[in-house]
From TrEMBL:
Top-level lineage group: Bacteria
GO biological process: one example: regulation of DNA-templated transcription
Annotated protein name in UniProt: Sigma 54-interacting transcriptional regulator
Record flagged with keyword Transcription: yes
Organism: Alicyclobacillus mengziensis
């Protein structure tokens, strides 16, 4: 009788599963797929008849299978952001299933596809205009001595000689283009034209920069004005200048030195724009003499020395700024996405300060966006941040070496609370951990009303 009723239920269940807009997957204890609905077919492009009856691990990386993880842990997950494949982003609920005796018999997952949302957000951020001021200034509001000196020098230089050619030097994503925009918005009235020297072939880059006279073409209308002329009173930003063909580099050096250049139709064009170039790192000065060949990547020496170099350190060398930058990007992402700004537990702020951020600002921005999208009401802890950023030991956290006094009041308070917690309330040890005197700690405790 029971079997009969169960048999009757099957068509209802199948229709129910297909009516659900989320991807539903059911596996048995061994990980063999029992159900795979329409939405799952669409999300992963795998037909039901191909996957049902097969081990799910044949279709996905084992480590990325939340279903197997919940069976291993015996614990459900709800509303967790998950990336089952490099090109798929989902919110997932996954639950282990037990029989009447409490024996594990399998698991069910329900996944909501948010790939488009993530992609759209990414695009929005990539396209986003750098703005003209305040919004991104906190990135360069620094407590780092070297960067402070560099920025002071730049400010003086621009006040005295706003047309000087600059070379922004720094790892990928440190903010070279942002700083170039900042300089531009402060001192130039024309347009900001950006060219990536990796993206164009030798001849094309030359034409893009210096233009081409009408004599090369049949009609006058096909005459091409170069960016150096087009950006008059503005800025030409040359990204990855070390990838510029050497012939063009020599021509550019000559144009900067002569204050202008001759176009192919013989006209002398004055250089009215500011040239700002960027490079990830300076070529090794000795490499040419040591190996007897041009340094790789080749950068014309004459051109190099025509630029004032502005070095921007990677984030791991300005750790004292990291908490402020993370909070800035959290607020920026929340504002743009219309979502509440998540709060970070102090240990997370410290973990971020200790992390190396190889992708620099770009990585911070993406990480904070993700936290805004996935974060809930509660303050975010270690389990909410990418595994690679979690400290392996408590020492990693305390080694974050974020000096007090360089932090905002909010962060300073968090840092003190963390130190008190880590030292079991021992104020002398906490003061040592924080690198301040005991008296200063007592003052701060009173100031923030901690331990009242
Ligand atoms: N308006 C903005 N405010 C704050 N951050 C921004 C803004 N626009 C972009 N960013 C973030 O800063 C990151 C780094 O900026 P930028 O492109 O200036 O670095 P870069 O050093 O020039 O990088 P690359 O070496 O790739 O040329 C961007 O990838 C983006 O995540």
């Amino acid at each position: 009788m029971l079997d009969e009723r169960q048999n009757q239920r099957h068509p209802f269940y199948d229709s129910l599963l297909d009516a659900i807009p989320e991807a539903v997957t059911v596996v048995d204890r061994s990980g063999t797929v029992l159900n795979w609905n329409h939405a799952a077919e669409q999300l992963y492009g795998i037909a039901e008849e191909d996957i049902v009856g097969q081990p799910i691990a044949q279709f996905f990386q084992r480590a990325s299978l939340m279903l197997l993880q919940v069976m291993d842990n015996g614990l459900p997950v709800y509303g967790v952001y998950h990336q089952p494949r490099p090109d798929k982003h989902v919110y997932i609920n996954a639950v282990p299933v037990t029989d009447h005796h409490g024996e594990l018999v399998g698991a069910i997952s329900i996944e909501q596809d948010i790939t488009d949302v993530v992609r759209l957000n990414d695009e929005r951020f990539h396209q986003q205009d750098l703005g003209t001021g305040e919004e991104w200034q906190p990135i360069f509001d620094t407590a780092n001595r070297d960067l402070k000196e560099t920025l002071t020098f730049l400010e003086k230089l621009e006040a005295l000689d706003p047309a000087s050619s600059l070379l922004m030097v720094g790892e990928n994503g440190v903010g070279k283009a942002i700083l170039a925009r900042f300089v531009h918005s402060e001192h130039r009235s024309g347009s900001f034209v950006s060219l990536d020297c990796r993206a164009l072939t030798e001849g094309l880059l030359d034409i893009e920069l210096f233009g081409q006279g009408a004599s090369y073409f049949a009609q006058e209308s096909t005459k091409k004005v170069g960016k150096l002329e087009l950006a008059a009173e503005g800025t030409v930003y040359l990204r990855h200048i070390d990838k510029m063909p050497i012939v063009t580099q020599v021509k550019l050096a000559q144009a900067i030195r002569d204050g202008g250049f001759t176009t192919t139709d013989g006209k002398f064009t004055k250089l009215c724009c500011q040239v700002i170039a960027s490079i990830d790192s300076l070529p090794d000065a000795d490499s040419a003499s040591v190996h007897g060949e041009p340094p790789s990547p080749p950068l014309d020496r004459e051109l190099l020395y025509l630029f004032q170099q502005i070095a921007i350190p990677p984030l791991r060398e300005r750790r004292e700024d990291i908490p402020g930058i993370c909070h800035f990007y959290l607020r920026l992402a929340s504002k743009r996405l219309g979502m509440p700004t998540p709060t970070l537990k102090p240990e997370v702020t410290a973990a971020f300060a200790a992390y190396t951020w190889p992708g620099n600002l770009t990585e911070v921005q993406r990480t904070m966006e993700r936290l805004v999208i996935t974060g809930g009401e509660a303050p975010l802890g270690f389990s909410d941040i990418p595994a690679a950023m979690r400290p392996k030991t408590v020492k990693d956290v305390t080694d974050a070496a974020v000096p007090l006094g360089t932090l905002s009041e909010e962060l300073e308070r968090e840092r003190i609370e963390l130190a008190i917690a880590q030292t079991g309330g021992n104020k002398a040890k906490a003061a040592r951990l924080l690198g301040i005197s005991r008296g200063a700690l007592y003052y701060k405790l009173r100031q923030y009303g901690i331990g009242d």
